[in-house]
Amino acid sequence: MSVPDMHGDGARTPGRGTRLFLKRKRMWAVLAAASAAVLAMGIAIPAAQAVHDTGAFELDGNATNNPAVPGDDWDNVCHQVTGTDCSTSSNTSASGGATAVDWVSEPNTNATIFTGGGSKDPIDINQWAWKDGAGGLPDKDNLLHSFAARYTTSSAGDVLYFGSDRLDNSGDAQQGFWFFQNSIALGSNSVGGGSGFTGVHRNGDLLVISDFSNGGTTSTITVYKWDTTCKKTTGTTAGTCGDANLRILGTSTAANCASAAANDSFCGIVNPSTITMPWPFTDKSGTPNNQALNGEFYEGGVNLSALGLSGECFASVASETRSSTSTTATLKDFILGTFGGCGSTVTTQSSVTGSTSIGTGSVSVHDSATVTVTGVQTWAGTVQFHLHGPIGSPLETTIDGGLVAVSNTTPTVQSDTATVTAAGDYCWSAHFHATTPATGIPDADSGDTNECFTVTPVKPALPTTAGPDVVLGNPVTDTAALSGTSNQPGTPAINPTTAGAKAGGTITFTLVKDDCTTLATGTGTNPQSVPVSGDGTYGPVSFTPDAVGTYHWKAAYTPATGDPNNLASTFNGDCSEATETVHVTSVASSMTSAQSFIPNDSATVTAPAGGDLAGSVTFMVFESTDCTGSALYTQTVPVSGASPRTVSTTNTTKSTTAANVSWLVSYDSTNPGQQSISAKCFEKTALSIDNDGTVSSP
Q: Which of the listed residues 554, 587, 620 is the one where a domain comes to its end?
């Protein structure tokens, strides 16, 4: 037989041994139509669904593993919970691979007993009450051990097993098994004359109520789910509300595992004869050797996949005894334990590990996340990636990526590519959230160290080249070729909407003397700076030193204020670069000599009688020996006064380097008593001129 689906929609807190179970979308159907309904929803259900024949667990009316039969038994579950050998024989029982287990011993027969009128199944847990040592509990309703296990099988999907043993077998007994999605525990608050519980119901909590006869021939099972849409009704068929908050998933009066149908979705069984329990057990009769009489041991199972409940995550389990199978029956004894619950983790890997350079101004990065969900086989959800950085910078920001679908078939997903435009430290993070109907899968956040990376700035190259050597009085020059710069950060720094500007800042040129420290002096600005806009050639700059010597240019690049992408860089800081050395020199001098003289002459005029002299003397000088050629200089000088009278030339501007000079001199008398003297060439001068050539400076 099959059972219709079960639905839950609340939040829960994972319990011990967290396990994740994905809750499928389910539809109501009667017991016989559950398989078809599940298939219609696209849920793959294995062909064999018999809960008593999955090969994962032995539903055979005893608690001891049979090595000849596949699957675990309750001694395996006990071992998995306690870590000790729970077998009373020599066989050691190891874990069989259950995804969630519970095994609780309650040796005190007066411990954890329900009390108060609010302790009923249709009422929420926060109104339940319990106490110790109440007394008056029927021995047949007194539980000694409670156990549960969950498996994922290849033949039947997700299956759930549960059971208990009791103090006495005198009479029929009714039991209930609650599987809570929230973590439920004993509280200390006062409720209904006893103590309360912590935690409340969540839609989708599972309740299995079983009625079995002492001999085990009759086994009636009804499966409910907690559903707050159910009001006080008395439905009896699958899909109806059997009581307030309790919707019937299925019921059967022939649910004995020993005679169940091939495709049964749930069944139960008691020990048909005396068995030896695999753990210490003493019934009311004091039966020796850990033996349980017929009907003192009960176990059952539910095929969650057949119910469409493979996604349910149960954090706590409680077995309970009751006065009847009615939903309003008085609850008696109970044993509460923790179960699998749900667990999820996110591990991530950034595309950049360690560090990477900002390059020309941007870096493309992405993140991948692998989601691991425990306790459930089928699940789905979303991952949202976040990128934060540059951490500690004024540009610090966080971007949130879109929701990326993730599931058990695609557990590893990748973020969108982000563009980072500022150097600094960045960290990815990823948040997982389950989005399927499965309840109890907790959110998970990544916390991996490999989520952080560093984007390093660049150090631009700054080679410079000085101009040629010069003679003192001329300027020296220098030119820089800046390369390897990065653009400045965009706005914002991650996935910018405004691109970053080219590298800014300045290049400072400094001319120093040969000691590499002392600033050169002269005409111009030293040091001097030029603005920068990305890669390029800057200069030439010039400066005119005031002294000869050897000089060195230095260059220093300073990035723009607030630019994290470019580092400062220098060139020729130690004056070792030959291309940055320039010499200021003086030129050599030379001298040639050439002798010259200024020719002058004088004449004395004498007249024996005739009174005073009156007239003029005319001097003409020639660069020849016979007064031929063009006169170099002519001067007429007046003569007057008593005889004799001497007159001279006054040449100061004419000079000559001729080796021979001759004079043509005449006297023109204006005194009638005295005669004139005609021009005569009677003065000659011969010179010896020796010019020795050129002399030079050292």
A: 587
Task: Verify that 319 and 448 share a domain, yes or no.
Answer: no
Residues 133, 185: one domain? yes
Residues 653 and 637 in one domain: yes
Nearest to 220 by CA among 398, 411, 1, 372: 1
Q: Read off the CATH number of the domain in which 516 is found.
A: 2.60.40
SS3 333: strand
| Pair 161, 251 in one domain | yes
Amino acid, single-letter form, for residue 68: A
In angstroms, rounded to a whole number, what is the distance separating the alpha carbons of residues 547 and 511?
13
Check: CB of residue 569 under 8 Å from CB of residue 460.
Answer: yes
Mean pLDDT score of the chain: 86
CATH number for 380: 2.60.40.3880
Question: For the chain, how big is the Rg over CA atoms in Å?
Answer: 59
Over the range 181-220, which residues count as b (16 or more CB within 10 Å of their CB) and which as e?
A: bbbbeebeeebbebbbbebbbbbbbbbbbbbbebebeebb
Confidence band (pLDDT; 50, 70, 90) for 29? very low
| pLDDT 10s digits, 121-177 | 999 999 999 998 767 788 999 999 999 999 988 888 889 999 999 999 887 778 999
Residues 168 and 66 in one domain: yes
Instruction: Please state the φ and ψ torsions of residue 103, each to the nearest 5 degrees.
Output: -150, 115
Q: Are residues 409 and 474 in the same domain?
A: no
State the average pLDDT over residues 204-227: 84
Identify any residues that bridge with 370 across adjacent strands, giving them in sequence order: 347, 412
Domain-located, residue 571: yes
Same domain, 411 and 432: yes
Torsion sign, CA atoms 258, 261, 263, 265: negative
Instruction: Give helix then strand counts, H and E, for the chain.
Output: 3, 47
486 falls within a domain:
no
CA distances from 617 to 268, 563, 647, 649, 666 (A): 168, 95, 8, 10, 6
d(C-alpha 246, C-alpha 265), whole Å: 19
Q: Tell me the sheet residues that pair with 186.
A: 197
Domain tally, the chain = 4
Contact predicate 658/623, CB 8 Å: yes
Assigned domain for 285 exists: yes
Alpha carbon 678 to its chain's center: 121
Residues 6+ apart with CB under 8 A from 90: none
The total of other beta-carbon atoms located within 10 Å of residue 423's CB is: 28
Are residues 645 and 669 located together in one domain of the fold?
yes
Domain of residue 642, residue span: 602-686
The verdict on residue 366 lying in a domain is yes
* Per-residue pLDDT tens digits for 62-96: 999 888 888 899 999 998 888 877 776 544 555 66
